[in-house]
């Protein structure tokens, strides 16, 4: 990766360069201390060298910061796209069927509880995208800031839709299970009433 290569280059260059600059500064100081006839020229060259070295270090630092910012932005885009794809995939996995009887409806209710735990794991990724977008927006302006906002909004809207769909399905399954339980209770009660009626009708009639 370019950023890692430059970081290594920067570390090596700074280390080797500092050692060489220190060596030349040592020579200059020794010449000046010995009262060399060209003391003024030596001091001037020493100052010029140190200024050039400081400028180079600043350039390396600026380049490092630019690469770090570029890497962070590209990582945000990658994370936002990946999170959006995962949220949309989970949305497609949501079934419409609610069950034909109490047993299948209760089984689907259990499956939906597992599904809700799965999508809850995505909430951390969504939150991270939102936090990264808020921070990066402050560092950029114009088109880039608008692009960051657009990526964040796509993730947030898809996440809100997924949560809404999941909550709607949970309510629908709950209503379905309640309906089947009610129907079973009605059926059991009717069967009991039929049994009581048969018992009454089976008894001898009074003369």
From TrEMBL:
Gene3D superfamilies: 1.20.58.60. It comes from the Eukaryota. Residues 112-146 form a coiled coil. InterPro entries: Spectrin/alpha-actinin, Spectrin_repeat. Keywords: Actin-binding, Coiled coil, Repeat. One of its GO terms (molecular function) is actin binding. Pfam families: Spectrin. The keyword Zinc does not apply. This is SPTN2 protein. The gene is Sptbn2.
